[in-house]
Write a structure and sequence with these properties.
- This protein has about 525 residues and is an alpha+beta fold.
- Helices cover about 20% and strands about 30% of the residues.
- It contains ten helices and 25 strands.
- The strands form four sheets. Strands 12, 13, 14, 16, 17, 21 and 22 form a seven-stranded mixed β-sheet that branches. A six-stranded mixed beta barrel has the order 2-3-8-4-7-6. A three-stranded mixed β-sheet has the order 19-18-25.
- Strand 12 and strand 13 form a beta hairpin.
- The longest helix is centred in the middle third of the chain and has 22 residues.
- The radius of gyration is 23 Å and the shape is globular.
- The N terminus and C terminus are likely disordered.
Amino acid sequence: AQVSVLARKNTPQRQSMIAFAKKYGFAITACAAMLASIKSTDATPLAGDRLFSASRHAARHKGLLGKRGQGHKPISGTQSIANRQTLRNIDEAMYTGTITVGGRNFEAVLDTGSFELVVFSNHCVLCGDTYWLYDEYQSKTFKAGSLITTQSFGSGSVTAKESWESVATGAGEVTDQVFWQVYDADLPMIWGNGFQVILGLGPPGSALRLAKKEARSAKKQVKQLRATHSENDAVIKEHVNKEAVARHTSRSSSLLHNLGLECFSICLGKVSGSPGFFIWQDTLPQQLPQGVFSTVPVQDGFYWSTELRDVSLDHVSGGGKGKTSLGCQNERCSAIFDTGTSLIVVPSTALHIVQDAMDKWRALRGNCSDLSSLPDLEFTIGDLKVNLPPESYIGDVDRAGANIDPGLLHYMPHIFRQGSSKDGPVEMASDPATQDSCVPLLMVMDQKTEFGQAWIFGLPFFRHFYTTFKLSDGRDGKPPVPESISFARPDEDCNPAQPDGLGRPQQRQAQQRPRLDLSKLRLPRWVWHPVN
């Protein structure tokens, strides 16, 4: 629990934490393995042999019981036809799927909002239990690179080295796939969150465009400093690094590109705690009966994004009258669909309007145990009108989450007291019936893009819509480009079903409101890599 507090920047406390982890790594690993067994998803009581097995795994990691066995094997059955993979639900805040790197299985966040393959290695003593992390010395296919870079995230950073490895997913295997091997990290959200890989599924060409853009920006900054005779060694070093990254990216291909995927889909179960599903090389929407899917073209930008218009609170859906505008009526907006972001991200003005609507609802004795009288979130993407029920943007915050990323204070100011985030989650109005609290489960970001104000639709969106991402072939040897995004209402088993449209359902079904642990929330990539 102290890791996120101590592992901040290069302080004496951080150095002490590293020394502690090295000295007592075996004890920490053994305890973590036992706890992982206790908290297994099948909820089976921890038997003595499982305790012994967990301890043996931890001891083997420290070299006390000889070499590791053959417990980690590549994914079997990878193929070019549709492959439906179950995703593990981690406290409603993220979902992970198994991929293979260097012959060993790892849990990966499948992230349409990022582009690179990032693998956390056991060189990083502050990245979690090192037993579960990537070990280049356990691989027969690892190849080292020379480029080292620092990548900045919302409230921290990672130091990573260019590497190559064999990688297998539900869409097949790629040999000599370039990836970033993380050696050091200053990110509290990594510790104990159950994943070791971030697999970027953003448009393949965007990584190069972003790298070139950053290199140009850094070069311009250096030029301005030299013109004013105020050279800064740190800025010049950053410029050289970004140019090197741009060169690296120009000669590399993303995993999405190398897999040759034409389309992929995601659908998350609606019921709290239920798994999600990722479909590799899914059936093309146009090959299904007409009317199952609705399709929208992708904007020619960096992300999986579409045109967004007329965002509002639809009070009719909750038994009221009229609508309250949240934006995008008289301004251009862009909807970004991001499987790596825990919540929906909105402009600050929209959050204030939602909070006012909740205050009025409470004044009329609205009860957080029943959200049925709250309005839907309604918006238009392309020419499609879409409705999301209130449980997609209202829910509970886990008061027990002590290991909270301080960066959340900026992006969720309505959750915390004024002042330091160490004061704990708060300003949540109590429901008199249950003494629980429900708040807008929204993140705030005022970010303009070339297509207007950005709205990011994270995991709550995919709990209500089966979503297929379609790529088209790149021209003249260039990476494939995003073509369209298709949507369908799923059935109870997360299969695309004959819809009654994407708008307000004829009959609203009561759903359990989500309860989130703030320590596990994932911020959008834009927090650390904004694009204008």
